[in-house]
Amino acid sequence: MLRQWETISEGIDRSWDRSILNESVVAIEPVSHAEHPVADLKLVQCASRLSVVCDRIIWVTHAASPPWIQGSGLTTDAQGFILIDKTLQSISHPNIFATGEIAAMVNHSRPKAGIFAVRQGKPLFENVYRITSEKPLQPFHPQKHHLALIGLGDRQAIAAWGSLCIGPSSLLWFWKDWIDRRFIAQFKTLPGVILQNP
């Protein structure tokens, strides 16, 4: 694993990073990738001029705001994410709601993790209903910490909660696998939608 950033996961104690760095991460800066002259091989070229030949490349990036937000007129933070208040409304356009990785809450800085996006779903639904019904909106208070279960690729996983970090462990990997499979199973059978003719 090659990494460019100082930490692997935003918002988690550095000890979590160190526990992975000791085993599987090379702290160099990959800047590009290309086809290797040998068939079916890939080449990662780093800023340090190191070149790494590999079979496959999985290029993982941090969350980034889409370009259209910059031209939308919506107020954003320094990274380009839509700034929202405690009711999940844009601070500059209260008729617009934004949640998940496209948004950043004022006074509640959180890492771009799926758990926060999922937890905003029901409050978003409730407040869209309330604003269309001319009822007072409800504030959303995000949790301060979240459990991170990270698979290491060899049926081992690490668990991190704030400054607490345990693993690697095969039991943690099976726990993560069970959680992931249960989540995906929700989308295998979706409720039917009845379409009415206009």
What tags apply to this protein structure?
alpha+beta, 8 strands, 198 residues, globular, FAD/NAD(P)-binding domain, 3-stranded antiparallel sheet
Task: Note down, in words, how this protein is organized.
It is a single chain. By secondary structure, this protein is α+β, with helices and mostly antiparallel strands. Among the domains are: 67-132, FAD/NAD(P)-binding domain (3-Layer(bba) Sandwich); 147-185, no CATH class. It contains 4 helices and 8 strands; from the N terminus they run αβββββααβββα. The protein has helices at 14-24, 114-119, 121-132, 170-185; strands at residues 30-35, 42-46, 51-54, 82-84, 103-105, 147-151, 157-161, 164-169. The strands form 3 sheets. The protein has a 3-stranded antiparallel sheet, with no helix packed on it. It has a 3-stranded antiparallel sheet with strand order 6-7-8, with helices on both faces. The protein has a two-stranded parallel sheet with strand order 4-5. A hairpin with a 4-residue loop joins strand 2 (42-46) and strand 3 (51-54). It is globular, with a radius of gyration of 21 Å. 14% of the residues are buried. Mean pLDDT is 77; it is low at 21-30 and 35-39.
